[in-house]
């Protein structure tokens, strides 16, 4: 009878400790979640206090500096959020590298085309200038003959 009572006691203790562990994890999660909300609330409060300390003209200047228009409506503005490159996933980093390589190739192709156009126009200009010099020389030779 004593062994059965000890076994029941151990099962109850195990259940109580497991329940306590779950309660502690839940409490920790709630604290962390509340801290994130609190951080956002405090950040909004600081922004509000800063905006209230500025004149309307200075506030508009600051708004235009840290926000940009949303969609086609130029009166609606949104906060510009920048992400650090460290927070990119491997897939995003690979996509960015591919986009960078593609843009670099497009720029290189564009610059080659521009260089080709410039050299063509310069050679055309030089050829036209050479022809005009020959015409002037031929004209001056005819005047000498007469």
From TrEMBL:
Protein's GO biological process: calcium ion import across plasma membrane
Lineage: Eukaryota, Metazoa, Ecdysozoa, Nematoda, Chromadorea
Identification of the protein by name: Uncharacterized protein
GO molecular function, one term: calcium channel activity
Transmembrane regions listed in the UniProt entry: 6-25
Annotated keywords: Membrane, Repeat, Transmembrane, Transmembrane helix
GO CC, any one term: plasma membrane
């Amino acid at each position: 009878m004593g062994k059965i009572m000890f076994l029941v006691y151990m099962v109850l203790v195990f259940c109580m400790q497991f329940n306590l562990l779950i309660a502690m994890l839940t409490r920790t999660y709630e604290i962390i979640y509340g801290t994130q909300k609190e951080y956002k609330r405090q950040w909004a409060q600081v922004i509000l206090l800063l905006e209230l300390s500025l004149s309307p003209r200075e506030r508009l200047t600051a708004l235009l500096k840290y926000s940009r228009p949303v969609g086609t409506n130029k009166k609606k503005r949104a906060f510009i959020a920048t992400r650090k490159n460290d927070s990119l996933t491997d897939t995003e980093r690979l996509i960015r590298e591919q986009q960078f390589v593609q843009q670099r190739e497009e720029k290189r192709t564009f610059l080659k085309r521009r260089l080709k156009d410039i050299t063509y126009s310069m050679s055309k200009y030089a050829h036209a200038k050479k022809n005009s010099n020959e015409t002037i020389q031929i004209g001056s030779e005819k005047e000498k003959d007469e």
